Amino acid sequence: MYIGIDVGTSLVKAAAFDGIGRELGVASRPLGLTLHGGVVEQDMEEVYGAVVAVLDEITARVPEPVELAGLTGQGDGVWLLDAEGRPVRPAASWMDGRANELVDQWLADGTFEAVFRRTGGAMFPGCPGPLLAWLDSHEPKSLDAAATALYCKDMVFHRLTGAPVTTEVSDASMPFLDPVSRTYDNRVVELLGLTHRRGLLAPVSDPAATAVALGEGLPAGTPIANGPYDLPACALGAGVTADGDGLLIVGTCLAALVGTAEVDLAGEPGGLYICTDRPGHWLRAMPAMVGTAALDWVLSTTGVTHEEVDGLLAGTPPGAHGVRVLPYFAPSGERAPFVEPRLRAELTGVCLESTPADLVRATCEGIGYAARHCLEAAGLTGTLAVCGGGTRSPAWTRLLADVLGRPLRVVEGEVGARGAVLAAAERHGVELDAGQWTRPTVVVEPDAGRASHYERGYAEHLARLDAARERVRD
Predict the structure, then answer these.
(1) Does the keyword Phosphoprotein belong to this entry (predicted)?
(2) How many Å apart are CA 77 and CA 85, to the nearest integer?
């Protein structure tokens, strides 16, 4: 049995697989988020406790010897530990918006672009640079008490194994890492006013660290690897490793990733380059802030359940009777394929004759247009895999194929956990057939007529987006 651990933002999951990649079972626990005034935080002890709980459950439910475990989880944010490995304060989430004004300032004074031209990473309020700078100004005692600033899965790996505190290249890619040298760029640290806090940046283990479990959650001695964070782990789990091939993750975050052998620091800043375990290979990532969370908000507002989505999508035509949604619902604005901290969602074309079905379809279409924008900016030229909670809706998956105008390789199940296992197997020298582990469940082809309609709709979406961005800058 191989176990993949995925420490998400709202849910922790542990998935068990057999030797050919079939899921044997999944255990999950919800996680709480504290939200107030743009601040989004998580309790580290709650997160770690949920990890141990799901591991206890899956190892009890599937009583097979554990050959290997791999770890992945949410990226960005700031997870501060003291010298004893204890939390200094609640973790600041990647969804946090307290540093909005700081990012605005850096956009205005050129700091933002200067960092992008060195690292290929477009900073957003919830990434470590702005968050650390905000804490340094408003909560310096927290940084004084901390020994290291980690990412979520790094904290979990340290607690499960007792291994020295480190991070790895994928998590470290934003915003301090030079993507070519794969080391921290001290000039970037200086530009963000954090030179005096340089010692907080966790050492980068390249390749990623391996260790054995201490016996909490996993049997003592179980080999485990601190794998890539959830976006690149999903790419591995979906079989996206060739240059030009892409992955669209339709989850809480809407993320587009495309494999590349080149780092291009020109063009409009947006997204980031994620280093992989293969030097000379990157994932050009455009992780938009909001994916299924936008639809969740519309469903809760209209009193519609997730089970009704497919029926509602069938009940209104492409174009949703003129209703349009710009799906930028995050309180910290947007980060890919452009950065606009003040951008907000817009709902237009609504009248007394509009129905919940129109609102649902318009939201799904808007998310599809945002996904297409991200994929084009990331340089997609090859095949496209899709995964995430949104793909559990067959009707929405067909809609996405039509909006994107290309076949979709649908990869179901716990794709991030699967990628974590594959990464751990590579690090520990365990031979697994990656092609067998990442075979798509189905391929969904676009409908030519609907794709033509959405071609025009996409052009209109870009025009509305341009107008919205102009308004928030005024």
Answers:
(1) no
(2) 17
The CATH number of the domain where 167 resides is what? Answer: 3.30.420.40
DSSP strand pairing (442-444 vs 79-81): unpaired
Structure tokens at 42: 């998580």
In this structure, what token pair is assigned to residue 268? Answer: 């409009």
Write the pLDDT tens digit of every residue in 82-134: 999 999 999 999 989 899 899 999 999 999 999 999 999 999 889 999 999 99
Domain region containing 404: 288-410+444-473
pLDDT in tens, 355-386: 999 999 999 999 999 999 999 999 999 999 99
* Distant-in-sequence, close-in-space partners of 3: CB < 8 Å, separation ≥ 6: 14, 15, 16, 17, 55, 58, 59, 66, 68, 69, 70, 218, 417, 421
Same domain, 193 and 318: no
Residue tagged 């947007």 (tokens): 334
For residues 110 and 181, membership in a common domain is answered with: yes
Q: What does pTM read for this prediction?
A: 0.92
When mean pLDDT is compared across 51-55, 140-144, 291-295, the lowest value belongs to 291-295
Tokens of 237: 């789990």
